[in-house]
């Protein structure tokens, strides 16, 4: 939901910028991509939600990413960095990765939209569905996730023409989703090395985080009972405001959803 919130906020507030003037179809595609991309950085953790989404395929990919992340951490850490494995909250939890994911997505869609957009929609829809349904969906039911993802992808592609989906907007959506993940991790007890490889206080992998009093435990009561519901409500509100700006909700023209 944090990815959807970030995408909704950016597109609703940036009403004078091209990213805030998308067609309803392009906005919806971006919403799916951003929601799924909010789980993408955790591909470096073999036990994460994203790693279980598509069964053996995603598990195998996760193992490879984890090994790469560990290697990069070991070879770039400084003396003051902790001597941990570095697989999780490593390379995929940096702005470098978010930029790479955004550029890669935009480039692939720009050059091969006919097949790339459906494939990426399927993958990111799967991540979004798994993330949202994680608390009550069977943990290992990859078949269910695949079926729901295929349904979402079919509906979106049927509704969206090839010219409606902006490659640049798709790339930005993925980058925004990754960044939303970093912000969420940064306010947990461990922090997030967003600014790697910039050395801060003698650490290449400096864990960016607010003061300890403002942090929360991952999966704790604060996250599940307070932060989660607030993020969900804001996502719906700003999502409606963004869609109102695209002209997709004429029946809400009587109310200003974003009075700024």
UniProtKB/TrEMBL annotation:
PANTHER family listed in its UniProt record: INNER MEMBRANE PROTEIN YBCI-RELATED
GO molecular function: hydrolase activity
Pfam families: YdjM (PF04307)
Top-rank taxon: Bacteria
Alphabetical UniProt keywords: Hydrolase, Membrane, Transmembrane, Transmembrane helix
Residue stretches spanning the membrane: 50-69, 90-109, 115-133, 142-159, 165-184, 221-243
Protein name according to UniProt: LexA-binding, inner membrane-associated putative hydrolase
């Amino acid at each position: 939901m944090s990815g959807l919130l970030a995408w909704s906020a950016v597109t609703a507030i940036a009403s004078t910028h091209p990213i805030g003037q998308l067609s309803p179809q392009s906005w919806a595609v971006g919403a799916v991509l951003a929601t799924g991309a909010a789980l993408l950085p955790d591909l470096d953790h073999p036990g994460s939600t994203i790693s279980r989404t598509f069964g053996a395929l995603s598990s195998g990919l996760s193992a490879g990413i984890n090994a790469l992340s560990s290697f990069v951490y070991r070879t770039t850490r400084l003396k003051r960095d902790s001597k941990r494995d570095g697989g999780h909250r490593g390379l995929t939890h940096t702005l470098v990765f978010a930029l790479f994911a955004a550029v890669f997505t935009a480039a692939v869609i720009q050059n091969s939209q006919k097949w790339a957009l459906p494939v990426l929609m399927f993958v990111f829809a799967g991540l979004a569905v798994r993330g949202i349904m994680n608390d009550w969906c069977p943990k290992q039911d990859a078949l269910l996730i695949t079926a729901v993802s295929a349904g979402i992808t079919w509906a979106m592609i049927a509704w969206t023409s090839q010219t409606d989906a902006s490659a640049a907007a798709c790339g930005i959506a993925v980058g925004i989703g990754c960044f939303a993940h970093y912000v969420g991790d940064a306010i947990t007890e461990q922090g997030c090395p967003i600014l790697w490889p910039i050395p801060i206080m003698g650490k290449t992998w400096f864990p960016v985080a607010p003061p300890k009093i403002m942090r929360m435990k991952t999966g704790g009561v604060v996250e599940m009972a307070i932060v989660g519901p607030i993020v969900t409500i804001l996502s719906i509100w700003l999502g409606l405001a963004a869609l109102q700006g695209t002209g997709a909700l004429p029946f809400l023209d009587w109310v200003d959803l974003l009075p700024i």
